[in-house]
């Protein structure tokens, strides 16, 4: 029986894809490196500094700060996915306990959630700045389980990226694919649940998980 629901943020709660890719593309162009958005999609779901490492950027700290500012300037393009706030509110009125495991930094999470007033819906939040290892490594999810005092077999992790799936299964936790963010099923054949829209979370719980 599911007693704990842990959420990814980008692509699961917040529709940030455009802001992330547009700001990254812009900053790299300013540094004399041009990419197509499709070539940067791997950045969705991993910490920003890891993205820059994979792109072999030399001055990671400076570029990461620049990217964060550029993304912040595009916050107006970020939206909550349809019905997600209503689902979170419903969950908050149930005995279920909820958490966040995200590749965002603590400040990035605060900047994103502040606009929508949803921080109160989560008892635990593990950000990229809270652990040494990051998704797809299980460490952040295990840290969240520890904070919630949750048993692995009573928890479910909801996310939209392959990193989320790998993190969940490496931690021994069931994974539910947020199809509204992933937009594809290919590569997610080992997901334990497929959620086509946020309201499916409530249906999953109603059916006992």
How is this structure best described in words?
This protein is α/β, with parallel strands linked by helices. It is 39% helix and 14% strand. It has a 6-stranded parallel sheet with strand order 5-4-1-6-7-8, sandwiched between helices. It has a two-stranded antiparallel ribbon with strand order 2-3. β6, α7 and β7 form a beta-alpha-beta unit. α1 crosses α3 and α2 crosses α3. The chain is globular. The chain starts with a strand and ends with a helix.
Features:
209 residues; single chain; 39% helix; alpha/beta; 9 helices; six-stranded parallel beta sheet; two-stranded antiparallel sheet
Approximate helicity band: 25-40%
Approximately how much beta-strand content do the residues carry? 5-15%
Count of alpha and pi helical runs:
9
H/E series, N to C?
EEHHHEHEHEHEHEHEH
Shape: globular
Distance between the termini: 6 Å
For the residues shown, what is the average pLDDT? 95
Regions with pLDDT < 50 over 5+ consecutive residues?
A: none
The rounded Rg comes to 16 Å
Largest sheet data = 6 strands, parallel
Number of strands: 8
Label the structural class: alpha/beta
Spatial order of the strands forming the largest sheet = 5-4-1-6-7-8
């Amino acid at each position: 029986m599911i007693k704990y629901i842990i959420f990814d943020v980008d692509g699961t709660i917040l529709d940030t894809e455009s802001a992330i890719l547009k700001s990254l593309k812009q900053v790299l162009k300013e540094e004399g490196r041009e990419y197509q958005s499709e070539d940067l999609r791997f950045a969705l779901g991993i910490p920003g500094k890891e993205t820059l490492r994979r792109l072999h950027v030399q001055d990671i700290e400076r570029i990461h700060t620049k990217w964060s500012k550029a993304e912040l300037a595009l916050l107006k393009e970020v939206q909550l996915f349809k019905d997600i706030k209503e689902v979170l509110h419903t969950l908050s009125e149930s005995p279920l306990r909820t958490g966040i495991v995200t590749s965002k930094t603590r400040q990035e999470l605060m900047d994103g959630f502040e606009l929508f007033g949803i921080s109160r819906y989560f008892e635990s939040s593990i950000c990229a700045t809270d652990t040494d290892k990051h998704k797809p490594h299980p460490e952040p999810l295990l840290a969240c389980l520890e904070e919630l005092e949750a048993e692995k077999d009573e928890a479910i992790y909801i996310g939209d990226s392959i990193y989320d799936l790998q993190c969940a299964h490496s931690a021994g936790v069931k994974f539910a694919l947020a199809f509204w963010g992933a937009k594809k099923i290919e590569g997610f054949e080992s997901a334990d649940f497929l959620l086509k829209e946020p309201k499916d979370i409530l249906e999953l719980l109603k059916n006992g998980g």
